[in-house]
Amino acid sequence: MNCPAAKAVLEEAFAEGEVIVKTVDLQEMDPDLEFRLLEEQVFIASTPSIIMENDGSLKMLYSGTIPTIDGIRKDVGVE
User: Fold this and answer.
1) Cβ atoms within 10 Å of 17's Cβ, excluding its own
2) Residue 55 near residue 47 (C-beta atoms within 8 A)
3) Interacting residues of 42 by C-beta distance below 8 A, sequence separation 6+
4) Strand positions, DSSP E, the chain
5) Is-contact 48 6, C-beta < 8 A?
6) pLDDT in tens, 11-67
7) φ and ψ of 27, to 5 deg
C-alpha cells in the first residue's frame, strides 16, 4: 500500500489487533501472492487497494478510495 492516508486509517481501525494488516509493496510482491491474485481474479488497478483474505479467499474491498475507519471496520465485520 503506497497510500499513507489509507495506511493510517487501517492502523487506527485495527489498532487493537482484531485484524492482521499486511502491507505489500507491489514492486516487490511475492510471486505466490501474485499468482493467487490472478487465480482469484483480484486485479490491482489503483492505489490504495485494500484486499481482505477470509477463509483462504481474497476479496477486493477498496480500490482507488480511502475508506473511513467505521466503514472498513464494518466491511471486515469488526464492531
Assistant:
1) 7
2) no
3) 36, 51, 58, 59, 60
4) 49-54, 57-63
5) yes
6) 999 999 889 998 888 888 899 999 999 999 999 988 899 999 999 999 999 999 999
7) -75, -20
